[in-house]
Amino acid sequence: MKKFIGIFLLLGSCCGVAWAGVELDSVEIDLDDKASLKRGGQLFASYCQSCHSAKHMRYSRIAADLGLNEDEVSRDLMIGPKTINDSMTTAMDVIEASEWFLGIGPPDLSLVARSRGSEWLYTYLRGFYLDEARPFGVNNLVYKDVAMPNVFWEIQGLQKAVFKNVDGKPVFDTFESVQNGRMSKEQFDRAVTDLVNFLVYVGEPAKPERVRFGKYVILFLLIFLVLAYRLKKEYWKDVH
Ligand code: HEC
Q1: Of 25, 41, 188, 195, which residue is least crowded by CB atoms under 10 Å?
Q2: Could you tell me the pTM of the whole model?
Q3: Number of domains in the chain
Q4: Dihedral of alpha carbons 175, 176, 179, 182, sign
Q5: For the segment 85-136, what is each residue's pLDDT rounded down to a tens digit?
């Protein structure tokens, strides 16, 4: 037991460093919004998949879940030569990639929404700011000294982070825009919401089905409760 508590504390302290003191922004996840999931999938294919895979996700599954046909999937969601039965791999060689990115290869993102949480992802993807000291010229608010460039700079624009001094320590205050992107802030937030929605879906594609099924199970249990109670009364009637 002590071992477990130790591991737990260790994990907490190592992961906590990245978001110490920063409040995560809330994001509305709606796995029934298929249009949003599709837009998120398109963003993943065009902005992320050159480096990251989501190898536990198959195109055929996306087609079935989002009600898309094979042509739509191959036109909107596939990069490179792939078939509907392939999974969302990346063309990038992992070893080569880790050499490019300061020794850290881009991780597979199939389960990232479950390990990091949707709010962390939403804050992370909007949280890149200019920092000349970093090799890619950017740092990240919730993932200090991250080895990923800001892939959204063209649509988001460039921003710098303003820190205020609290008890001698720099504490994040706000972002200030340095250069506008192609999207307005609202449009960009919407786009990142779609992408996070997609990553949450990829983390557990069966969730909407499970929730729907769960309602029937609860209904069954309630009906069964009434029946069991009446049966119990019937049996005990003769005993009393
Ligand atoms: C040019 C390559 C590249 C692209 C494109 C890219 N990333 Fe990354 N990403 C990386 C690298 C490298 C890391 C590892 C950073 C580290 O651990 O310091 C990373 C890390 C991450 C992490 C943190 C994973 C974790 O839990 O530690 C997330 C989340 C992520 N990327 C999401 C995305 C999303 C979403 C996109 C598309 C919008 C994207 N990335 C596009 C290279 C890339």
Answers
A1: 25
A2: 0.85
A3: 2
A4: positive
A5: 999 998 776 666 666 776 778 899 999 999 999 999 999 999 999 999 999 9
Cα–Cα distance measured from residue 115 to residue 129, given in angstroms and rounded to the nearest whole number: 24
Range of the domain at 80: 2-205
Structure token pair of residue 34: 């298929």
Q: Mean pLDDT of all residues in the chain?
A: 89
Q: 129 and 227 share a domain?
A: no
Q: Is the beta carbon of 92 within 6 A of some atom in ligand 1?
A: no
**Both 66 and 116 in a single domain?**
yes
- Do 197 and 85 lie in one domain? The reply is yes
Test site for ligand 1: of 115, 121, 148, 150, most ligand atoms within 8 A of the Cβ = 148
Q: What whole-number distance in Å separates Cα of residue 29 and Cα of residue 118?
A: 8
List the one residue out of 76, 43, 88, 78 whose CA is nearest residue 196.
43
Tell which residue, 56, 67, 73, has the closest CA to residue 205: 56
DSSP structure string for 106-173: PPP-TTHHHHH-HHHHHHHHT-EEE-TTSTTSEEESSSTT-S---TTHHHHEEEEEEEEEETTEEEEE
What H or E segment, with its residue span, contains residue 17?
A: helix 2-19
